[in-house]
Design a protein that fits this description.
alpha/beta, TIM Barrel, nine-stranded parallel β-sheet, two-stranded antiparallel ribbon, 13 helices, about 45% helix
């Protein structure tokens, strides 16, 4: 059954109360352990060899814009060699899987004085054609780089056992759904396992003033219910508080925010990040928030943001979402996969134990993927 407004609120309050016991310790431990993380590198490498790891959001080499037709997007594809290098970097860093994400609104985005925005409307049928085109591009790149296209945690684990990288296909932006919620079945048939409701361009799944989402539309609510039925995960990264809160009340499955930050208490650090209340709404569904890799301060800054998320929502609701090659001109702390052992070592040095670190590097997402599959099988 969907969460009621009262039960959702009670779970948010519980998540906030639980996080109180984390908050004063993790960040202080990280600050005092700044120079000691090197001593944990061997332990980190061993842990990564044994446990599930997954990047919650990635666009290696900006593959969504490869061979893109009639595009207003100023960002070029970085090349097949860069895509191959990213896959090799995953092997070297022991990042065994990731949500490889097409970006459906890529052709209609451009740079404006206010930043990236929609600069032209989609033509009729263009978004659906673009979704299928990007899936075909990705499928070809995965095949040529010996990457396994995975649908389940078991698929990822089997690929890992064979020494291969696994790709779970996600999708950034629901523009291609248009007014047809039944299209989510075709998405799943194409191998997609996660749909980000909103990216930059306004779409039919959200209410909007033309520049910003302000809740789910009727089609959006119907689409989310259909996603729940078939086990397609909902990603609320980029979405407003209002849209996220509505999705949390409707959903029967955990929701994700694959590449996000939570603001510092004074709001000064990455003010574009979500509030603590926003983050707790996601956690209250059983969901996971991936720490965004496009932050300043190097890896120490990335770990600080990860620990702030843990302080806010608890260890069971935090993952890693680098947004590899998708961060634009932002300084990226996590900009190559061979950094994963350092990130893992820093988490260990902060006072997290191996099981807790394993949850952050992928275990929490594995749980959500399994939950979505189980829910679909029961429906």
């Amino acid at each position: 059954m969907p969460l009621s407004r009262r039960s959702a609120l009670s779970r948010i309050i519980a998540a906030g109360a639980a996080s109180f016991f984390w908050q004063p310790n993790r960040l202080l431990a990280a600050q005092s352990a700044t120079g000691s993380w090197h001593h944990y590198l061997d332990q980190a490498s061993d842990l990564l060899g044994r446990r599930f790891s997954l990047d919650m959001h990635m666009h290696p080499a900006l593959f969504p814009v490869k061979d893109i037709p009639r595009s207003s997007n100023p960002r070029p594809y970085r090349g097949d060699d860069v895509f191959a290098a990213r896959i090799q970097g995953m092997r070297e860093g022991q990042m065994w899987s990731g949500f490889f994400s097409p970006v459906v609104d890529a052709p209609v985005l451009g740079m404006t004085p206010q930043g990236p925005a929609m600069v032209r409307p989609f033509e009729r049928g263009e978004a659906w054609s673009e979704f299928k085109r990007q899936i075909a591009v990705l499928d070809d790149l995965l095949r040529r780089n010996d990457v396994v296209k995975a649908a389940t945690v078991a698929d990822v684990e089997a690929a890992h056992a064979a020494g291969k990288i696994a790709a779970i296909v996600s999708c950034e932006g629901g523009d291609h759904i248009e007014d047809k919620p039944e299209r989510v079945e075709e998405m799943v048939a194409a191998g997609v396992r996660s749909l980000q409701i909103y990216h930059v361009a306004p779409n039919s799944l959200v209410k909007t003033d033309g520049t910003r989402d302000s809740g789910l539309s009727d089609i959006g609510r119907e689409t989310l219910q259909e996603m729940n039925r078939i086990g397609l995960l909902a990603d609320l990264a980029h979405a407003s508080f209002e849209t996220t809160a509505e999705a949390a009340e409707i959903t029967t499955q955990p929701i994700l925010s694959t590449h996000s930050l939570v603001r510092a208490a004074d709001g000064s650090a990455h003010g574009f990040g979500m509030t603590a209340e926003h983050a707790r709404i996601i956690a209250a569904t059983g969901g996971v928030i991936g720490t965004f890799g496009g932050v300043g301060g190097g890896m120490a800054g990335f770990i600080e943001h990860t620990l702030r998320l843990i302080d806010t929502v608890g260890i069971d609701h935090v993952g890693i979402g680098t947004d590899m090659d998708g961060t634009g001109n932002m300084p990226a702390a996590f900009d190559r996969y061979p950094l994963l052992p350092e990130a893992t070592a820093r988490l260990l040095a902060s006072g997290l134990d191996e099981d807790e670190v394993a949850r952050v590097i992928g275990g929490n997402v594995a749980r959500v993927l399994d939950d979505a599959q189980a829910g679909a099988n029961e429906s």
